[in-house]
Amino acid sequence: NRRVMERVMSTIAEDETLDDLDAGDVFTRCLDAFEVPDEDRVELTVSYNEIIKDLREEDVNAE
């Protein structure tokens, strides 16, 4: 989503590029950009990490 990426990119320091960030960093910056309350972040982060883990496992199985 272009608007989401623009919001995240606005939180990156001048000397940073998107290549400097991993997927977890980008996710955290999305939470920050959308001002997600702390009480919601734990559950969202756990779910996000499960999804990333599943995607990596599926990718390994595809080889």
Automatic annotation (TrEMBL):
Keyword check for Nuclease: yes
Keywords of this entry: Exonuclease, Hydrolase, Nuclease
GO MF entry, a single one: exonuclease activity
Name this protein carries in UniProt: Exonuclease sbcCD subunit D
Organism: Chlorobium phaeovibrioides
Taxonomic lineage: Bacteria, Pseudomonadati, Chlorobiota, Chlorobiia, Chlorobiales
